[in-house]
Amino acid sequence: MQETTDDPIAALKAILGPSGWVGAGDSAPYATDIMGPGGECLLVARPASTDEVAATVRLCARHGIAIVPQGGNSNVCRMAVPLDGQAAVILSLTRMNRILGIDPASSTATVEAGVLMQTLQEAALAGGRVFAPDWGARGTATVGGAVATNGGGLNVLRYGTTREQVLGLEVVLADGTIWNGLRSLIKDNSGYDLKHLFIGSEGTLGIITRLVFRLHPDQPVTQSMMAVLDDMARLNEFFDMARGIGGEHLVAFELMPGMGVEKALERYPDLRRPLGTRGEWYLLLRFAGLDSVEEPMMRLFEQGFEAGILSDAVLSSSVAQERNLWEIREQMIPYQYFAMPSLKWDVSVPRGRIVEFLDRAGQIVHALRPDAICYAAGHVGDGNIHYTVFVPADSPPAMNDRICTEVDGLIWQMQGSIVAEHGVGAMFAERMRRQKSDVEYAMMRQIKQSLDPDGLMNPGKLLQRN
Ligand SMILES: Cc1cc2nc3c(=O)[nH]c(=O)nc-3n(C[C@H](O)[C@H](O)[C@H](O)COP(=O)(O)OP(=O)(O)OC[C@H]3O[C@@H](n4cnc5c(N)ncnc54)[C@H](O)[C@@H]3O)c2cc1C
Predict the structure, then answer these.
(1) ipTM
(2) Same structural domain for residues 124 and 183?
């Protein structure tokens, strides 16, 4: 892996070997994300080992070349492509896709960063274990990306965020040094727990190459209920009921808008309408256990119905029915349904204040733009709602900025966050700055400065460029 030429790109190609890179001319699939093409990509490096990652990073550091780490590029906040004004090497982890071992005795999995989430879920399940992170992009997102974004998803209520699944990490630092923190200890108070710096750091501090995850015992019997939420104001009361009755069996508690359900059923003819009754809001809950969870689920429905919170519900009675319910949930992504400019938030507020947030945000938006469409769906059991406002194409930028500023202000006033689980990327970097106090932002900058003094790791993401 010796550098043999003054041309850094040629040297990188030599380090990586013929199947380890994609040239700039063919880089569009890597350099484009959900928002469209990114900035200039000098080369897509596709290393096959930690040593190759380290050699790539060392060479880039020596030549002052920025690096954009990339997993499955499934992020939704412009995180994993170069930005305009700073050409970069994209470092794709997708060739590092081996499951290195699953240890049933310790209930852990050791994997390379480019393993797909779904691949690890399936491997864990084959051994009677659950790899907890799960969301719609499971077939595209890598475990490295999940950790670098501290992804949330559908199982947070039961198992916590991705952060809580990580026991150890191996990271290539910005100068190419390899930090081996690949431990599988549950307890280790031997100083600062450095892995947490890299979890959720969006590739701005180093490149995660290998990981040790905690696995959980499988709860093989699952059942889901989709219910018409008649009294939205009592959402939290019903959540408490579900927690009380379901206890640890309650795995997921999701809110879906009636408008989204109708659009999904219209657009995807393979989806079956689960309920005769239509509502403005639906809840989708999953219970899981070793044995049947039907009895507590029925009891929950009856209590919710008698209390006047729910007006109708369906309990899945087969795997296919349950899958249908969750496929509807996964089609709650609104961009496919509205061809209008959008403003978006991934809102986190204290769980009991979700309804208040939706009411107040709706009032703010409609006072400014009565014809805007407010769309909300998400993991309300975690106090997290994906909130999108669609505005007519002729809505002036100043008006859209004002809507953004006022809704951001509401979220902060409610002690919330505008970036609950999807992360910051370039899209929210400027707005996130305003969410943080000067003290907190300065600490973040100091961490960045000490681990990446030349600012070459994913510049312009998470933190604003200097
Ligand atoms: C349909 C759909 C549904 C989604 N649902 C959810 C959801 O419910 N919850 C949720 O949290 N997210 C969700 N996402 C967003 C996305 O899937 C997550 O952000 C995911 O964690 C990204 O993983 P990735 O491998 O695609 O990473 P990428 O998109 O490639 O990268 C994401 C960030 O991580 C960095 N990165 C990637 N790999 C590494 C590495 N090995 N080392 C260091 N940095 C790295 C990148 O530089 C970038 O900053 C959804 C996306 C889609 C398309």
Answers:
(1) 0.99
(2) yes
